[in-house]
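Case study 2.
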Amino acid sequence: MPTYTIGSDGGRNYANFASFAADIGVGISNDLVTDTENWTVDVYNDSGATVSTGSGASINPTTDATYNITIQAASGHGIADHFTASDALYPDATGAAHYTYTGTFSNGWSFAAPYTTLTGVQLVATGNRGGVGGMSADNGMTSGCIFHVTHTTAGNHLWQMSGSSAQATIENCLLIQDSDDRDALRIGFSTKYVNHCTIVRTNASSSACDGLENLGGTVVVKNTCSLAADTTPTDDFESGTYTGSAYNASTTTQAGTIGTNDQSSVTYTDQFEGASDFRAKSAGDLDGNGNNAGPATDIIGQTRASSSTIGCWELIAAGGGGGFYARNYYDHLLAGNG
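Prediction:
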């Protein structure tokens, strides 16, 4: 099955994601089912550099989970390869596969193709009204990524998952929203799963900036913290229907209104190792207050305990360990969409 490589160094198939997306249906297939193909797209840490023009694709090359697309950090270039238990958990342009978008009034990265997995990369937006992007197609998986909007002016939504007719999942992701003008995670319309994610808003004074905006449909949130540094934050979890949600945390009282076994009204500064280090802090409200539903490891591959840490980071006791665990959407279907 085809493997395509993205990066500016010699020998890659495409210099950047935009050129790969533009080649679908031109130089490569636009019908994976007929051609019986699964795609692996390996993204290298030289793949994004800094770009001012957004890139993406709205295509429909597959209608069958058997023929799927996995867009992943190349071996040795992923978050789980680059970060260790002692590294600050924050975007690092010199390490894992990284894409920085400086453009304005749009999203830097988007991919609207069904049965697509995105895993192990860092996406950052720095321009006024620029957003990182989203996976808006149905039956998608976003796993083990770091997303960050760094500007504090009017912005776009940080990450969006809003396919209208089938399910999608985001897990083990860190979402950092510095703008107070748009939501961090915008999700819904059909069945959407959020599990073991860390959502932080560093400047959440505006009513336009929710931690998680619930667009309706069946939204299931587990083991996820949505926290705001502002002393009077707006919605950590926007009001709406949350089905089967549990083991979440918020700086407001909202975690308790969307599910059970919650940690509500937590103190933001007590939860992380530092202002630019989103590893969960030992003995904080996230430590040991989750469960083991969903991914077996955290964002860097550490094995989760049965009473897991809420959020993307798992606190590991001395002598503990784990190995890299990445699953694509097809694996997720077989596992039962936990």
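Residues 85-335 form one domain.
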